[in-house]
Design a protein that fits this description.
Number of strands: 15
Distance between the termini: 10 Å
Number of helices: 10
Number of domains: 1
CATH architecture: 5-stranded Propeller
Oligomer: single chain
Order of helices and strands: EHEEEHHEHEEHEEEHEHEEHHEHE
Strand content: 15-25%
Helix content: 25-40%
Radius of gyration: 18 Å
CATH topology: L-arginine/glycine Amidinotransferase, Chain A
CATH superfamily: L-arginine/glycine Amidinotransferase, Chain A
């Protein structure tokens, strides 16, 4: 079969509206961005409000947002982050991923994949379930663990308790991706739990926190590979990373342009020079997700699972 051309950006995303959002004690040990909030009111209601505002903002700029409701049972406080359990690809393949926290494993929902195919007009071919690695204590949490240069088949991944080196290599062989694994640390010297917290790859630019990569050889290799693949590197500081300024996603608008989705907090942390560099390639759009960021340690990019599946009205084989 002829290889399917992959693009770096899509105009469609999957989002899951939370039903029982909250700080998850099962994920706190490996996620230093996660906080326990007090005196802020009903975090579930606040999270739903932030979710709805983000959906409205994305739809306003022309992004197709496929919203599904989380289920009250079983308890899935992190269901708002579907990009960790599923990835959708241009050849029609869907991949399901192994999750470290027990409560997060319930987020994998075949009914959503079925509905995308039967009700929402997407063509689904093979569904590849990698979650059996959980039995071996090995994890790879989707496009949280993997930051993908889809157009060039390069995957960047910082190793952590949630990103297993052996499983990463297996994934690369299965999908025919070059894998660049590295070590990343926060300001306290603790492993950064997900790669998409510290870097974002757009169509012609990359936002990355070089200070988060202590090994000079690894840092040089990543910078060189990004530059060799035609990306302008826009560096951010460790403090900006803590404000989720690396947790970004470029999306096509369906109107011939693109936007860079981020949180309001992330946008506020950027300097005029950084914003100017981004504006050479795309337009920033932001929405406040303060409660979601603080309670769960994940931001706007984590809330978006890109849908690259072919549409039912498109020609060719899925």
């Amino acid at each position: 079969m002829e290889a399917v051309v992959e693009h770096q950006v899509t105009d469609a995303v999957l989002m899951i509206r939370p039903a029982r959002f909250g700080s998850n004690p099962e994920t706190a040990a490996s996620n230093t961005f996660q906080k326990v909030l007090s005196g802020v009111g009903n975090v579930q209601q606040l999270a739903q409000l932030e979710f709805d505002l983000l959906v409205a903002m994305l739809r306003k700029v022309g992004v197709t947002v496929e919203v599904f409701e989380d289920t009250p049972e079983p308890w899935t406080p992190d269901a708002v982050f579907p990009n960790n359990w599923v990835s959708f690809h241009a050849d029609g393949c869907v991949y399901l991923y192994p999750m470290q926290a027990q409560s997060r494993r319930w987020e994998r929902r075949p009914d959503i994949i079925d509905a995308l195919h039967k009700q929402r007009g997407y063509r689904v071919g093979k569904v590849e379930d990698l979650s059996g690695a959980e039995l071996e204590g090995r994890y790879l949490e989707g496009t949280g663990s993997l930051v993908l240069d889809r157009a060039r088949h390069v995957a960047y991944a910082c190793l952590s308790p949630r990103t297993d080196a052996k499983l990463l290599k297996e994934w690369g062989r299965k999908l025919d991706y070059e894998v660049i694994a590295f070590h990343a640390m926060d300001g306290d010297g603790k492993p950064i739990y997900h790669t998409n917290i510290m870097m974002c790859i757009g169509s012609r630019f990359a936002v990355i926190c070089p200070d988060g990569i202590p090994n000079a050889e690894e840092r040089h290799r990543i910078v060189q590979r990004l530059e060799n693949t035609g990306h302008e590197i826009i560096p951010i500081t460790g403090k900006q990373m803590e404000a989720f300024a690396g947790n970004l996603l470029e999306l096509a608008t369906g109107r011939g342009g693109s936007v860079l989705a981020m949180s309001a907090r992330a946008e506020r942390s950027l300097t005029p020079a950084q914003k100017s560099a981004i504006s050479n390639y795309t337009r920033i759009v932001s929405s406040p997700v303060n409660t979601i960021e603080a309670c769960s340690g994940g931001g706007v990019r984590c809330m978006l699972a890109e849908i690259f599946l072919p549409r039912a009205n498109e020609g060719g084989q899925a």
